[in-house]
Amino acid sequence: MDIISALFVENIELRQVPGPSTRIDLAGIMFSLPAPSAPPVTIAPHLVVIVRCRDGEPGEGILEVVFKDEKGEEIARNVSPFTVEPGKFTYRLVRGELTFASFGTIEAHCRVDRGEWTVVPLTLIPNPEA
After folding, report:
1. Bond before 40 cis per omega within 30 degrees
2. DSSP symbol at 96
């Protein structure tokens, strides 16, 4: 199985189109966000991971997401089994509670089973309105 995409988003919606086929609408894709208050601050952004299962592959896997700070230290982890029909796609919504000690970047390291890591950054920036 392969990770096709992993992104921090504000919203996800699924819709059917003729075929049958499904469309995934992602809104508010972000790589940074303004802090809701001065650090330290805890946020819980949505990470959407889209996975493809090839024909002939078993349709069961484990999604592992490890959130790391700028020092490479683990600050949160999510491990969840999933099932997808071979030849199809699935998505998983991961919501980690991330504590930023200061402004900076946390990376979500994502993989299926013991596969290659896909890394997605999220940077907390000062909020001029806070």
Report:
1. yes
2. -
The fold of the 2-125 domain, in CATH, is: Immunoglobulin-like (2.60.40)
pLDDT tens digit string along 9-37? Answer: 999 999 988 887 889 999 999 999 999 99
> What is the model's pTM?
0.92
Tell whether omega for the bond before 36 is within 30 degrees of 0, i.e. cis.
no
pLDDT digits (tens, 9 = 90+) for 83-129: 999 999 999 999 989 999 999 999 999 999 999 999 999 999 998 87
Q: Is the pLDDT of residue 130 over 80?
A: no
Interior CA angle at 16 toward 118 and 113, to 5°? 25
DSSP-derived letter for residue 86 is T
By the 8 A CB rule, do 98 and 108 touch? no
Is the distance from CB of 25 to CB of 17 less than 8 angstroms?
Answer: no
Domain coordinates in residue numbering, the chain: 2-125
Helices (H) and strands (E) in the chain, counts: 0, 12
Closest CA to 51 of 104, 15, 93: 93
Specify whether the CB–CB gap between 110 and 120 falls below 8 A.
yes
